[in-house]
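Long-time lurker. I teach an intro course on protein structure, and each term I like to show students one example going from raw sequence to a predicted 3D structure in token notation. This year I'd like something fresh instead of my usual example. Would anyone be willing to generate the tokens for the chain below so I can use it in lecture? Attribution to the forum is fine with me.
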Amino acid sequence: MNAQIIETIESIETRIIDLPLKKVHNHSNSSHAHQSLLFMTLRTSSGVVAYGEGGTPAGTPFWGGESIETMKEVVDRYLAPALIGANLFGHETLLHLMDRVASANFFAKAAVDVVLHDAVGRILGLPVSAFYGGRVRESMPVLWVLVSGNASVDIEDAERQIERRRHRTFKIKMGLSDARSETERVVQTVKAIHAMDPRATVTVDLNQAWDFPTCTQYLPRLQDAGVAMIEQPLPRWQLQGLANLSMRLNIPIAADESLWDFRDAFTCFKAGATGIYGVKVGKGGGIRRAYKAAAIAEAAGIPIYGGMALESSIGTAAALQLFSALPTLAWDCELVGPLLLADDLATTATQYREYEVVVPQGVGLGVEPDLDKINFYSRKQ
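-- Reply from a regular --
Happy to contribute to a lecture. Here you go:
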């Protein structure tokens, strides 16, 4: 006899959390000193309470079009009402219900998807990783982001991370000023880091800052200096340009802004527009759809790394649950949101040790929210 588990969704509530960063975070087209997150609370028909979190970089629409305010509005007005009364255990149906009422809105849907996963995990008494085959790793190497735009500052920062055995893989943010001076800055930084630790890996992220001629002029210099990977040097729509750069260089070109859900993954892999795939729960539309994209990458022979959107320990736990179950994670992960935020939203902060980040052990996402801090940092409506 087949018995279907039925547990319906009674309510989904949201609130905006505003947190300061420890230092300014620079992108090619934006700088921010705060991070806004959408905190989720879900209640089921049997009284189970689950929690989740989602957000975009800075909480503003500069990166992906969504802002924390649009996320909350879309969830409150469209996504949550579509799911009330639905069976929590019909996950593909829940995704379909969200798609029917809202196109795209990947970050908003991801926030809902995270709290759905936490609810199921709490009911079954299992970690989310169990839904995707179980863990193959209990911790994973984690990179550090160098964001100051100043070579001396970034070199000092990298030296501290290496000495403390926190990180020896680094991502340098580029595209803040003219290409020539930016290249000189990064070359200087890369050489200094490799002098500190020859085992260190350095990548760069241009966040769509350059055009194709600029890339052909300066990316070879970055390759020669020892940069291991170039992330999104061209605007997101230039898939052919990304593919052409990949053929010119001996290091991977990674699409990020060009690649959202698992359908985009198929398109980018087929076009040869990316040599690495950064799995991101928020950008990918949630845990389940990010897992689908990772499976497409595995089938295409594309190595992956685990990305972030500056989440607290709650959102970071969601990503860790997924990344811990992926068969391979060749380029490690960048889950350092909890280290960049001035405060955290979980009762137990994400653990970092010996260049790695540790997967939490509890059920669901594996963490519990600190409700006092949630209340303290909640935006007044």
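Some talking points for your students: The first helix runs from residue 68 to 83. The mean pLDDT is 96.
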